[in-house]
Design goal:
The chain has 417 residues and is of the alpha/beta class. The protein folds into two domains: 4-219, Spore Coat Polysaccharide Biosynthesis Protein SpsA, Chain A (Alpha-Beta Complex); 222-416, Spore Coat Polysaccharide Biosynthesis Protein SpsA, Chain A (Alpha-Beta Complex), CATH 3.90.550. It is built from 17 helices and 14 strands. The strands form two sheets. Strands 3-2-1-4-6-5-7 form a seven-stranded mixed beta sheet, sandwiched between helices. Helix 7 runs parallel beside helix 9 (195-216). The protein is globular and about 70 Å long.
């Protein structure tokens, strides 16, 4: 059974919390995260009751996007379900998770709780079917990797953060799966503001947002190559363990941070390159997510390098033509090396830059279905590069080996320079 972290935001004036009870009754084995405005008096008065059902968090001066992102950062399960508080789930069966596509953003069809709005629900479902463009009141279910690769909801937006997120996911190569079940949504906003007026406003805004958000995210349409930079939180005591045994933590932390900032500077100034942080975060989880807050990520937790590379390769192999893996601790590695790798892969299947210790610091590939190679290699031996080379075909090896920083001696020499 797939376990979900169900994230529900609440605003300052929300008073109907019946959805929490419905979820607890129907999906009691899943995590519920209830996060919203610090100014909601009703939630505070009923906090002891709500805490029996879900985890509750209050944020100051918050938006819905901030609440959703905050909940995703705290979620303990790998699948995230973003749900509006005014939704009704009685038409969704307990075993609906069997219909989920783990490689896509899943969303429901929509009905309103008032039959006067059948045309609105019909048009919304037609838009979702044809354009694959569901809105937030249809709910989104996705893996953490899809969420953090798409790079969360835009907290700078006052409204339309759900629509912008879906369009950005389209541009980044993520597909949408519309489930066959109906989510019941409240029609209160139509009743309060007027059915015809609000329908016209929503239609107008939808067209404007589609044009604006697609134009804004055009840079992500380039599916030629993705660069995956394997990093750890720079202040993690699990990074550079061998060096930390001989040199103070503060020096290692400073080195890590300099190397990471150097790479981020490269990519921030090369807007045409798609790059993703392969974040290996075993400790300080929330702090590491905040440190890399602005960047697309794929979360790799405690996995060793082989498993981490395999996981990243499987995720991206059908989105990008070429995948470039690099480390963050190679002072000599520059953006020109990466550009050369992308160019060389037009002719060769695989591209390597080896290191002087017998490993490699850059591996580029356009070869398909090689995921098992990553876990068949022992990365701690001095023949790592040769073993990896022998498992691939049509390879090109860069003419010079680069130095990585894996020992205290290498770090001292680097600092002297």
């Amino acid at each position: 059974m797939i376990k979900l972290s169900i994230i529900i935001p609440f605003s300052q004036n929300e008073k109907d919390i019946s959805l929490l009870f419905d979820i607890k009754k129907k999906f009691n084995k899943n995590e519920i995260i209830f996060v919203g405005s610090n100014e909601n008096i009703f939630v505070k008065k009923n906090i002891s009751l709500i805490r029996k059902i879900s985890k509750v968090y209050f944020l100051r001066n918050t938006s819905r996007a901030q609440c959703l992102n905050f909940g995703a950062n705290l979620a303990k399960n790998q699948m995230l379900w973003f749900l509006h508080l005014d939704s009704k789930i009685h038409e969704i069966p307990k075993n609906f998770y069997k219909e989920l596509n783990l490689n896509r953003i899943n969303s429901f069809k929509i009905k309103f709780d008032n039959k006067k709005f059948l045309i609105n629900s019909f048009c919304a479902n037609l838009r979702s079917k044809i354009l694959k463009n569901p809105f937030g009141d249809q709910s989104y279910i996705m893996s953490k990797n899809i969420f953090f690769y798409t790079n969360k909801f835009n907290e700078e937006l006052i409204e339309g953060e759900d629509h912008e997120f879906i369009i950005r996911s389209h541009c980044k190569g993520i597909k949408i799966n519309i489930l066959k079940y109906y989510l019941i949504s409240s029609a209160r906003k139509y009743i309060y503001r007027g059915h015809t007026l609000l329908t016209i406003i929503f239609f107008y805004k939808t067209i404007i947002q589609i044009i604006f958000y697609y134009f804004k995210n055009l840079k992500f349409f380039n599916k030629n190559a993705v660069i995956i930079v394997f990093m750890k939180y720079p202040f993690s005591k699990n990074s550079k363990k061998r060096i930390r045994a001989k040199i103070s933590n503060s020096i290692v932390d400073k080195f890590n941070e300099k190397m990471i900032k150097r790479l981020l500077f490269f990519f921030n100034n090369k807007k045409y390159l798609n790059f993703v942080i392969g974040l290996r975060y075993s400790d300080h989880k929330i702090r590491s997510l905040r440190y890399f807050d602005k960047y697309s990520k794929i979360l790799l937790e405690d996995e060793n390098l082989g498993i981490a590379m395999k996981k990243a390769y499987i995720f991206f192999k059908y989105i990008y033509k070429k995948i470039i893996f690099i480390g963050s601790d190679i002072p000599d590695l520059s953006i020109s090396h990466i550009n050369l790798a992308i160019k060389t892969l037009n002719k060769y299947e695989n591209y390597f830059i080896k290191t002087n210790d017998g490993g490699f610091c850059l591996f580029g590939t356009k070869q398909k279905n090689i995921e098992n190679i990553f876990t068949n290699i022992n990365y701690s031996r001095k023949n790592t590069f040769l073993n990896f080379l022998n498992c691939t075909k049509n390879n090109y090896v860069y003419h010079r080996a680069l130095n990585d920083i894996d020992t205290s001696f290498q770090l001292r020499n680097f600092l002297k320079k």
